[in-house]
Amino acid sequence: MLFNELSPLVQEFLQQPTAFLGGFVSGLLGLDLQEDPLKSWLERQTSTQSTPPPPAPPTSGPQRIAID
Predict the structure, then answer these.
(1) Which residue of 29, 32, 45, 62 could cross-link 19, Cys pair, CB 3.0 to 4.6 Å?
(2) Measured between alpha carbons, how far is residue 42 from residues 13, 14, 22, 59, 65 in Å?
(3) Nearest alpha carbon to residue 27 among 14, 9, 15
(4) How many domains does the chain fold into?
(5) What does each of the 68 residues of the chain score in pLDDT, given as a tens digit?
(6) Helix, strand, coil share of the chain (percent; to 5)
(7) With contact defined as beta carbons under 8 Å apart, do 21 and 42 qualify?
(8) Residue 16 Rama label (left phi>0; alpha psi -120 to 50; beta)
(9) Residue 41's domain spans which residues?
């Protein structure tokens, strides 16, 4: 039962550990997340971690081409 309640926190931590820990520590310290410089730092952390790298194109094997 406790695991079901904590699983969303663990999933969020695993996806974005830096932003999660930054928000968690600021909550413990009573800092406001809507004020700069904390707000801009958290935005930079989440934007750099949330963009997945593009998939690598296949280098061998048959390739599909379109003929008009």
Answers:
(1) 45
(2) 14, 16, 7, 37, 43
(3) 9
(4) 1
(5) 677 888 887 887 788 777 777 778 888 888 776 777 777 877 787 665 555 566 666 667 777 788 87
(6) 60, 0, 40
(7) no
(8) beta
(9) 9-50
